Amino acid sequence: MYNFDNIKIFYFSGTGNAKRIALWLSEFANARSLDCKLINIAKIDFKNLERSEPEDLIIIISPIHGFNYPKIVLEFIRHLPKGKNNVLLMNTRAGMRIGRFVTPGLTGVAFILSSLILKIKGYHIQAQIPFDMPSNWISIHPALNQATVRYLHKVNYERVEKHAQKIFSGQQDFLAFRDLAQDVLIIPVSIAYYCLGRFVIAKSFYASAECDNCGLCLKQCPVQAIKMLNEKPYWTFKCESCMKCMNNCPKHAIETAHGLIAVVSILSSITFTFFMQNVFELDIESFFFRLLIWTAVFMALMMILYYMQHLLLKVKLFSKIISITSLTYYKFWGRYKSIPNEKWTE
Hints:
By secondary structure, this protein is of the alpha/beta class. Helix content is about 45%, strand content about 15%.
């Protein structure tokens, strides 16, 4: 059993899934007359983090990006002052629905890495709990229909209530252990995403001709990853791919450059083959080194062509071509945001 006086819930959220879990936890804490404080990680000055009182229960909740916590969350954990507090680690993963069954997402290295950092700092891990909220990664799939979104919110609300009763009673709760085998298996993917993948995704967002330069995406970006360049929003490598900008844009003007990704992939393969065979005359047998070189070529071309695409967006014909080669341009693809309780309890 663990005793605590106050609860601090630190959350990072793009489209609202992690924040929704945080709000539900706060609701159940208040029902027990527990003092609970919600803190947005994106609003914190990491260099001036205060040490929590020893009796405080600390909860950290964030979405999973590339089978890991986003960089901003890992940086927050890394900057936490040393302490002896009990910590609950939670995440929101890409949930889907098949009938009444909720398909689970994957946590990957998120709990493993963060637990290691926290233990080194002296903290005690009391729980590791994933929640399969609606998948918001509409760069790779259409937005889930509203019936599915409502169902997943209802199911996860009930799950939060069940786990809240357990953890607020001071018990341990390591639901994540049941997924440990597959989470360990995808550690290489987590590392690859953290080192390279997130930078590619950062250069896949653009503002179409529908953009009216309202500046909402710049103002709301939790990591200030968007800037104005050539009178258009421009995504930098600081982007966490939280999907907040795309799903919050009132004009649905923010899209994913699927056409650009396809062009860069083809050009990377052609460039790699040409230089390896005709310029350097190298025959590298190692798959790892071939992949490493191809990735370097891909990244270089992605940076160059993304900038060129940004300039071409000012030309009406090219802007239209770029948009129609993006799946997110079409209305059926949709957008996603977490919904308040009154929406799924109707």
